[in-house]
Amino acid sequence: MNVARVLIAEDEAVIALDIKTRIISFGHQVVGIAITAEECIKLAADTKPDLVLMDIFLKGNTTGITAAEILKRDYDLRVIFLTAHTDDTTIAKAKLIEPLGFIIKPFEAKDIKTTLEIALYKAKMEKQLLESELKYRTLVLTSTDAMLTLDENGLITSTNNKTIEMFGYSESDIVGSSIKKVLPDVFINHLKEGIKRFLEVGKVLTANTMELLARKKDGDVFPVELSFSQWETKNRLQFTLIIRDITIRRMSEEVIRKYQLELERRVEERTVELTQLINQLPIGINLYNMDGHIVYKNRACAKIWNKTVKELDAENYSVFDDPILKRYGYSDELKEVFIYGGSFNTKPIFFDQEELFSDGRQDGHLFVFHFYAVINDSGNVFRVVNMIEDITDRAIAEEANLALREQKITSSLIFEKLELERNRISRELHDGLGQILSAIKINLEVFEKGNKEDLHPLIVAKALIGDANNEIKNTIFSLRPSFLDKFGLVTALKSLCESLLESTGIKINLVNHGLLKRLCLKHELAAFRVVQEAINNIVKHSQSKTADIIIYLNNDILNIIIKDRGIGFNVSQIGDPKRPKSFGLVSMRERVEILNGSFNIESEPGRGTEISIIIPVGGSDE
Fold first, then answer.
1. H/E element holding 146?
2. pLDDT band at 422 (very low <50, low <70, confident <90, very high)
3. Could you tell me if 33 and 16 are in contact, meaning their C-beta atoms sit under 8 angstroms apart?
4. CA nearest neighbour of 364 among 351, 379, 377
């Protein structure tokens, strides 16, 4: 229980002390006792009690009723009247002060206690009600919206300052008037419907919002937003209206609407431009949603599949079920792009003409599929772009360029080889035959100038002429071995091995299995030149003292194996234009491949070299 602070105004001391004792026994506090109205007012100002027990008739010129009126007006204090006079006139005067109760003398303790507790409760409730009313009234008065209350006939019963400002009426002009004064009939009809509903089903109309045109005192109309609700007091309907001037908002909305229309127009124009641009691209473009279905495709994409855009739209296609991507193992990568984002490209995928196309191209098409995830502001994938690139022409061009580059390299190697061969022949003619002819000339000059009877210079010249003849034969054999034309491949290779043994000391073992007939001259010449080049390489680079040549013919397939036991080399460097030593090996391979044969070489540093040659000879002989 809250302890109340009570002031007693009673001019009879005995009664005052009795009341004080009883109040204290009830657990409350007595802040003072006054015997006159003036003293009561002063004590109230000093002690600020919660409640005053006031005798209606106090000593002095001022009555308790007057004192109670002053206390209520100046100090917001309420009283309980003590009186022995119960005449109607006195009671009527006292009621005007709105006391919290009356205690009639003589009284009992329970009368004081009951009246005191009721009075304290009423004072508390009235204070809370006053505070609440003040709070909400302040909200109403300071609101930036017009606020009105209506009765069920649509008459305005109260308003706030914003209503007066908004509509231009004074409070006296608008209070008591019909709401039609400021709002059109459409609202009155809505109000009537709400009343009718309440009368029929007993339901209160919930808060509603509507926009309409309001009218000012000067006749101007302006847009407002209206919120209203209804409530009931003692079976009477009351309505609360909140009216907001939305003129500025409407103007802003109109400006925004114009900007939106302009933006939509520009977006539409740019969309058309981009669509036209995308449709002109030679690359097929698909846009997928998260279900794997196509939401956009350009014309190039339709052309790739040899269908119209409408035909593709009619298909229930899902990229997750694409058989091509599944066949080449791209399903997992595709799902990762849809889930986690990122991108990936397929390797070139070949489609033959019968699978998809009727463009007359017999060599088919080669495509690369590119997939890119599109991320939204939240960092999530919401679209996937697929670009289909036809690289057929590019691949053909690259293949042609590669062939051209290889042809250029081959031609360069051939020219280099021819130049080397010219230098070799020139050097051999100069160092061999040239030196011999010079020596013959010198000996003939000695014989001419010397003693005619001395035949030694002639004998030396004759020997040198024999050497020159042998040198010419060797050169001719190197350029075109006569043994090959007359006796065939095996005899020519034997002669070559014997000549090399005599000139270099390298022993070359020639083994023949099954080659007992002559072959086509082009096959014999190619085989001889390849073996000749291989032996030259052995002589120049292998540092080997022995070598083996094995020849055998099996079912019209000529097999030749050339082996040495020399220093070997790195096979990966064959064909490098920067390594002149590889020219001979390249020319050997080309000679064999021209005849649809195969050429293989195996070698490692320190392990020697083995060359395998296979030439289909087709059973033809010369």
1. strand 146-151
2. low
3. yes
4. 351
Q: In this predicted structure, what is the pLDDT of residue 396? A: 78
Strand partners, 208: 228
Contacts of 63 (CB under 8 A, 6+ apart): 37, 56, 57
| Predicted confidence (pLDDT) per residue in 433-489, tens digit | 667 767 776 766 666 666 666 667 667 767 777 666 666 666 655 566 666 777 888
Cα separations in angstroms, 546 against 125, 355, 542, 561: 129, 59, 10, 14
In one-letter notation, the amino acid at residue 374 is V
User: pLDDT tens for residues 342-368?
Assistant: 999 999 888 776 655 545 556 678 889
Q: What does the chain come to in residues?
A: 622
In the chain, what is the greatest distance between 2 CA atoms, to the nearest angstrom? 199
As a whole number, the mean pLDDT across the chain is: 79
Radius of gyration over every alpha carbon of the chain, rounded to an integer in angstroms? 62
> In b/e form, how buried is each residue of 444-458, taking b as 16+ CB within 10 angstroms?
eebbeeeeeeeeebe
Query: Would you say the pTM of this structure is higher than 0.70?
Result: no
The set of residues, in sequence order, having a beta carbon less than 8 Å from that of 278 and lying 6+ positions away, is 285, 298
SS3 for 360?
coil
Place of tokens 């956009």: 296
Q: With contact defined as beta carbons under 8 Å apart, do 72 and 97 qualify?
A: yes
- Residue 531: closest CA among 565, 502, 556, 494: 494
Amino acid occupying residue 385: V
Is the CB of residue 52 less than 8 Å from the CB of residue 68? yes
Helix residue ranges per DSSP H, 243-388: 247-280, 299-304, 309-314, 323-327, 331-340, 353-356
pLDDT confidence bin for 204, thresholds 50/70/90: very low
Which residue, among 85, 106, 81, 103, has the nearest Cα to 94 in the 3D structure?
A: 81
